[in-house]
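Sample entry (490 residues):
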Amino acid sequence: MKQTDRAAEHPDEPRPCLSVVMPCYNEAATIIEVASRVLASPFTRELIIVDDASTDGTSALARSISDPRVRVLTQPFNQGKGAALRRGFPEATADFVIVQDADLEYDPSEYRLLLAPLLAGSADVVFGSRFAMTQPHRVLYFWHAVGNRVITLASNMVTNLNLSDVETCYKAFRREVIQSIEIEEDRFGFEPEITAKIARGGWRLYEVGISYSGRTYAEGKKIGWWDGVRAVYCILHYSPARQRRLGRRHATPLSLEEADRELVETLDNLDGADQYARWIYALVEPYLGKDVLEAGAGHGTFTELLRDSRRIVACDPSDRCARVLRERFAADSTVKVLNTDLHGAIDEGPYDSVVMINVLEHVEDDAAALRDAREGLRPGGRLILWVPAMEWLYSDLDRRIGHHRRYHLKQLRRLLSEAGFEAEELRYVNALGALGWWVMAKQLRRRPTSAASVQLFDRVVVPVQRRVDERARLPWGQSIFAVGVRPGGL
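Predicted structure, serialized as tokens:
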């Protein structure tokens, strides 16, 4: 989108056109000074500080700033730079958005350098390069610089860009550009992720030289070697070629009717997996109240276990599943069947518990579904989730039975938090099942949910896996078990 003729003719003329998003974690020593420098810039229209659950008083110091241009957002728990930016970007209202660290490494007086191509209408995104060597920079760690160069080279190889500094903090965007990009990384993986997504989007990217006054680890530098490893993973994971393949995978999902037909065989086979169902119920039962909504009840296998001395509302948007549920519980007055989705069942509440077993992954807008669940719960009520885990396990079977995604812990924790839940339980389960799924679905391309596979899993794997999960929490699994609490007391 072109700027006004006046802005194009006078790209250096200061005007308040910039939203500055500043993630910070334990930066009490510098937050006031950096904020003062940001607010001194004639380009700054607003400063959005996102405190990442600091423990040193950073948040209180930020809130003490009296300038009306400052807004302070607080994360419920420490998540990382990427998560803070994901929180801050949607709040921006100015024409342009820039990332500003809360230390003194980057100089806000140089906003004019980054804004010049944007104000001239030449660029959609501008990176400030520490390696362009046109501005002063502090001499620090050799191997740190080598690592940055290697990461930048690797990123350029997969994005076909010729950047000199992918890991720079100073990244400026047209607001509509950054607000159109989904940020997935929680920590410093944001840098290669956003670069890859800009490349894939075909946005006009410029680079300008900036000064740099780097700090030492003793002075508070937080990025470490593990972040370098993660950066390499992100370069490959978010590469435009891979994302195009994933886009094709998700661009042609089956229709609801086709997915429902695929689900029939899967649900029929799982109906016989008694030990698997009882294992899930053993995890779920301590968190159940007396009034329960089971969303996506399917054929009612889990409903049978839930109804013990409880009032159950079992809903499913599938006409066929609702018909099966009505037939199965026709003689049971404690079970009410609704042919609707979660949103349509809210009015039957409020509920003590909302249960979603292998359901959330089928919902296109999972964030909205979680908000609906919260709306249907009493204060103090619990949302209980069982969802498929590990994106690398996503297979053709996932696609065919209507899975939009598989989850990881941080992603699900973030979704729960943003929907207004406090996470009471959140862990991977069924590590052996994950390995089996990887072999069957990903390598052999066979159905892990065939009748024979389900029976083998139920009789052999489940008893072993239950004992493993009782003794240790492994950092991966086929599924995630999560419990979120709506704040407030019953």
